[in-house]
Amino acid sequence: MITSHLGQNIYEVSVKYRPVMTRYFVVSNREELDTYVKWLKETWEEQVTCKFLGHVTTIGKGR
Q1: Whole-structure pTM over 0.85, yes or no?
Q2: Which has the closest alpha carbon to 29: 48, 47, 44, 50?
Q3: Percent of the chain that is helix, strand, coil (3-state, to 5)
C-alpha cells in the first residue's frame, strides 16, 4: 500500500528491457529517487527513464 500526502510528486521509473519494468513512486522531492535511479543507470544506462507524472491531488481508498 502506498502512503501519500497532498502535494507530493508522482514519478514513473522504467527500465526498457524485456520485459519492461515499471515502478511508480510518490515522493516529496526528486532527490529521494536519485539514489535508486543512479543505481539502475549503473547497470541499464540509457534504458532507464524517470518521468514526472504529476502531484497528489486527492487521497482516497483504491479499489
Answers
A1: no
A2: 50
A3: 25, 35, 40
Q: Give me the residue spans of the domains in the chain.
A: 9-55
Closest C-alpha among 48, 38, 39 to residue 17 = 48
Please state the separation of Cα 61 from the chain's center in Å. Answer: 20
Compute the CA torsion angle 24, 4, 39, 29 (nearest 10 deg).
110
pLDDT digits (tens, 9 = 90+) for 7-59: 888 899 999 987 889 999 988 888 889 999 999 999 888 899 999 998 888 76
